[in-house]
């Protein structure tokens, strides 16, 4: 199992805490075929009430009968945390099929405010039948409410 981090994962973002809309984007270049239980993490900053999550992917499974699938959830980053990981909060494996042809997955969930930095986590549940290198982007929308 590989635990991969996106480009800006180690560069936390400023949270104004004023309730204004905020959009965070990040990407990961997939260079090898992901295996079952591999994860890709994108940072969600503390104080963000997440309202929309989109996963934009290139066609990383070019097979005529593609098999790649993943879930979209969140996981704590720090050891002492108030959160328990939820690997399917934003989308289940059944919805993680966008990478079969490339395109955008619009996740469906109830808005959630995070009081500490967490990882938006893609967890692969099936590998690509015919892998092709490409990028996976996370686009996270929310209200910058700040922490308590």
What does this entry look like structurally?
With 148 residues, this protein is mainly β. The chain has one domain (3-144): Jelly Rolls (Sandwich), CATH 2.60.120. It is built from no helices and ten strands. The strands form two sheets. The chain has a five-stranded mixed β-sheet with strand order 1-3-9-5-6, with no helix packed on it. Strands 2, 4, 7, 8 and 10 form a five-stranded antiparallel β-sheet that branches. The model has no long low-confidence stretch (mean pLDDT 89).
List the helices and strands and how they pair.
Elements: E1 3-5, E2 21-30, E3 39-44, E4 48-57, E5 69-76, E6 86-91, E7 103-106, E8 112-113, E9 118-126, E10 134-144
Parallel strand pairs: 1-3
Antiparallel strand pairs: 2-10, 3-9, 4-7, 4-8, 4-10, 5-6, 5-9
| Proportion of residues in extended strands | over 45%
For this structure, the CATH topology is Jelly Rolls
Instruction: Round the mean pLDDT to the nearest integer and report it.
Output: 89
Give the termini distance in whole angstroms.
35 Å
Secondary-structure element string: EEEEEEEEEE
CATH architecture: Sandwich
CATH class membership? Mainly Beta
* Structural class assignment: mainly beta
Dominant shape: elongated
The tally of domains stands at 1
Main pleated-sheet profile: 5 strands, mixed
Radius of gyration: 15 Å
> In DSSP terms, counting alpha (H) and pi (I) runs of 4 or more, how many helices?
0
Strands of the widest sheet, in order across it, are 1-3-9-5-6
* Oligomeric grouping of the chains: single chain
- Low-confidence region ranges: none
SS elements, strand count = 10
